[in-house]
Amino acid sequence: MQVEDEYSTKSLKKWTYSDIINWTASLIEIGKKGMRQVIEMKGKELTGQMLADLTVSKLQDEYKLGKLSAMKIVEALDKIKKYNPPQTDEDQSSTSMAKNRKESNKEEEEKEEEEDGEEDEDEEEYDEEEDEEDSKKNDSNNFCDIACINKYQGLVGLKNLGNTCYMNSAVQVYVYKNKTKTKTKKKTEWDLR
User: Fold this and answer.
1) C-beta of residue 160 within 8 angstroms of C-beta of residue 141
2) Does residue 186 contact residue 126 with C-beta atoms inside 8 Å?
3) Which region ranges are annotated with the description Disordered (predicted)?
């Protein structure tokens, strides 16, 4: 566990030649011999990116290592990858995007509630034409169709085409949950599934 903690602060793909040499010293003997052979063949051009791409078959074919030695190296690399920070900026941004989306959804809901509270109750009556448009947008299975999704930026949903639903993205699905009618306004709730 000490090795994993020591090398978990820097992404494997960003390792330098000196990081690789230090890590090689921490391997068990059979792994050390194999890594030394890899280092001798590649020299100073060996990078963390190359380490991240190593597989047992690649070590056996390209570097002529024995199966046990190759397995020990890949096993040690897998441990490092497990405790390593995300390998790319895309991985980091996707996890932070999900958190930001949740926060922004909460903020939007709070703003809508404040705006709804400020509206005058006697302002206008419930519009039946608007209700018909919404019912056209929402199919009988309570899934939001593409036209409905467009007004909610960033939402993803299903479009019902007969008996088959087609996903327009594999990220998440918001399902039309509830519509409450009042004299002055209607409220639509969306549920993340």
Assistant:
1) yes
2) yes
3) 83-139
Separation of alpha carbons 71 and 78, rounded Å: 10
Residue type, 94: S
Tokens of 182: 């009042």
Whole-number Å distance between alpha carbons of 158 and 165: 6
Distance CA(86)–CA(29), nearest Å, equals 29
Q: How far apart are CA 193 and CA 129, in angstroms?
A: 29
pLDDT in tens, 95-123: 555 555 666 666 667 766 666 665 544 44
pLDDT digits (tens, 9 = 90+) for 151-186: 554 545 555 555 555 555 444 455 555 555 556 666
